[in-house]
Amino acid sequence: MPSGKSLLLGALVGGVVSASVSLLTTPSSGAELRTKVKDQSERLRDIMQELQENGLDLKNQLTQTSKEGAALLKDLSQDIKTSIESWKETIEPHQENLQEHLRQIEESLKDLEDKMKEKNEQQEV
């Protein structure tokens, strides 16, 4: 935030300097000069008030946006978690079926190996 303060200070100093230079370089009477100085100071005060209000509005918008973003991220993470759990529940029965089929294939292969051994032993005798 220091850069925002220095920008604001620079704008303020620049405005004062430019107003002073323009007032001092124009030919006018003392009454006119005082009126111009008064008008410039009021205008500068209005600008400063507007900058302050805009800064507060921006701060409030940023705060609201960050709160909404945090809420959206929380909802999104909950949705993702729910989706993953649902996917796991959907896949689990199929996984068990696949494991059962693999066990059956292993048993069939073992039976086939045993039969091949027996056949080889019978041929050797």
UniProtKB/TrEMBL annotation:
Residues 34-68, 95-125 form a coiled coil. Pfam families: YtxH. InterPro entries: ACT_dom, Desiccation-related_membrane, YtxH. Residues 32-117 form the ACT domain. Keywords: Coiled coil. This is ACT domain-containing protein. It comes from Halalkalibacillus sediminis.
